Amino acid sequence: MSGSSRKPPAAGEPHGPGTPPPIRASHADRDRTVDQLRIAAGDGLLDAAELDQRLEAALTARTLDELAELTVDLPPLASTPGGAAVEVKDVLRIDQQAGSVRKDGHWVVPRRIDLRSSWCDVTFDFTEAVITQDVLSIDMEMHGGTLLLVTGPGVVVNSESLSMSYSKGAVPRPEAPGTPRTLRVELTGHLAYGRIKVGPPRRSFARWLRRTSA
């Protein structure tokens, strides 16, 4: 980060004449800054080292000025069409019989997904998702159908706590240690007579043409 701001007085230190005292930051203020930093990292604006440094500073910040300094060079949080800040759900519940469910585009990843489905294909595409936390837990009770997880850079999937019966599909091994990680998806629960597919997005024909002509 470039630039600097006047260091706020320590506790008990008098303020200069005519200088208003700094406004104390609340837990909600720190949480908003943490969300903004993680979204920026997911968009490639911060590397892993910068993210860790700024997160540590945000969690220990005492004033709003200190928090503002951490995001002065970043775009604001994504907004809804009405202009309100994105709200992250604690739990997204999906209860579907047959058919299909798909979450893609700029959807906001919740902190946990409670998935109950029967003979239903379910897709979670993380390539353009708004990610505001390190871990997503998908607790599933899935009978039949396919679970498709479209991952992007830094998104890894762990299925060690998922039990499977009469099902197929393999989850790729986690990336090498030290690789920047945006989101870890933890699969838990049970899958029967179904299939899991995990991988990056498929290249479109137009993208393939651009690659071959380069």
From TrEMBL:
Q: Which Pfam families match?
A: DUF1707
Residues covered by region (Disordered)? 1-29
The segment(s) forming the DUF1707 domain are 23-75
Q: Tell me the superkingdom of the source.
A: Bacteria
Record-linked InterPro entries? DUF1707_SHOCT-like
Residue ranges the record marks as coiled coil: none
Protein name, UniProt field: DUF1707 domain-containing protein
